[in-house]
Amino acid sequence: xxxxxxxxxxxxxxxxxxxxxxxxxxxxxxxxxxxxxxxxxxxxxxxxxxxxxxxxxxxxxxxxxxxxxxxxxxxxxxxxxxxxxxxxxxxxxxxxxxxxxxxxxxxxxxxxxxxxxxxxxxxxxxxxxxxxxxxxxxxxxxxxxxxxxxxxxxxxxxxxxxxxxxxxxxxxxxxxxxxxxxxxxxxxxxxxxxxxxxxxxxxxxxxxxxxxxxxxxxxxxxxxxxxxxxxxxxxxxxxxxxxxxxxxxxxxxxxxxxxxxxxxxxxxxxxxxxxxxxxxxxxxxxxxxxxxxxxxxxxxxxxxxxxxxxxxxxxxxxxxxxxxxxxxxxxxxxxxxxxxxxxxxxxxxxxxxxxxxxxxxxxxxxxxxxxxxxxxxxxxxxxxxxxxxxxxxxxxxxxxxxxxxxxxxxxxxxxxxxxxxxxxxxxxxxxxxxxxxxxxxxxxxxxxxxx
Length: 451
Ligand code: ATP
Ligand code: MG
Known about the structure:
This protein has 23 helices and 13 strands. It has three domains: 14-148, Beta Polymerase, domain 2 (2-Layer Sandwich); 243-388, no CATH class; 397-448. Strand 8 and strand 9 form a beta hairpin. Helix content is 49%, strand content 11%. It has 451 residues and is of the alpha+beta class. The mean pLDDT is 94. Helix 13 (253-262) packs antiparallel against helix 14 and helix 14 crosses helix 17. It is globular. Adenosine-5'-triphosphate (ATP) binds next to helix 7.
């Protein structure tokens, strides 16, 4: 029953071939394992190469003498070998002891046996090893699961999820990114143990969520596994099945959110912004006399939720601010004229303004189709934006034909006064009241000075 895949030869990058040869010349055996093998089988170019080997860390260090070897996780048996500029992570075959905190194994034991190492891995699709001469080593049915597009825990899924609760999110992440289904028992184990996510560090959760939200199948995971994700982002829970009771909407809040997310490019800040953009709705819901639902102030409320949750996940401050602004402004009306475009460019900068347009477009696409006509005005807005950028129009202080030094030259010494005048000049230029020319602005500055 050898399939074409089992005898297949993968075309490996030169540095990886060198690593195999060097290990062999030292009397050891290495295998590619985990994500890179999975990605090869899915015809996706692997991004990084992990190997597992029967050599101990000390033996690897000796074997790769002459190469740069970083002791990245010696206690866990991991070193990183740099070969021709490529970082290859190599880990000694390992058996993990008991987990008493659903995070860290109490003891790590090295083994010379590959199959024992594969048994400790999270999902069958990640527990396939590859050797150039031996082919694929697949003791847990990972190849079949890749073909069936299934995420299945290695061994007893319940035990695997309780050992390390991060696997709960990893399972959802792989399902969202690869578009695979969760096998029944694995799904049950994920749901039953989701409370243990509280034991996992914010950074590890954030790393998984950043990938999950960018998945091509994020909608299904958000809608089907809301209870699990709700352990980390509780505001998802009331959004589920929250009917909007408005002619603008054809979906409940969470479905609208999930549908809108999939319209966006897979960039974390865009996807985060869309995830949060309406989560303030359940808290701000009112119904008018005609029975129509309204959500006055929901953008502000969603922004507060976004900032709070992202801060708790230790997401970078820059990203939190970008997401916060996108959530805050997702529903504002933007006039489709050049002055308005320049004001928004000044407020957000070009990349974030483009993101805002993408968010507004996605938000509209996930509404009742009779309101899709608004998409046309977003298209005109984007065309104007392109034009303003192409014309190199002035919309920020750095584009202004005068600067602080010029004002100091006029004898204005006070920093605050200089700032105030520059801001007024910029507003005048953006609003096309003044030309962005040095002589014009110097004259205006003289008029605007207070002292
Ligand atoms: P990615 O494409 O994100 O790199 P990956 O599967 O390579 O996905 P890594 O975090 O790089 O994920 O881990 C490499 C391999 O180590 C996994 O494929 C899996 O075999 C194993 N692994 C990683 N994290 C865990 C875990 N929490 N529990 C069990 N095995 C794990
Ligand atoms: Mg990897």
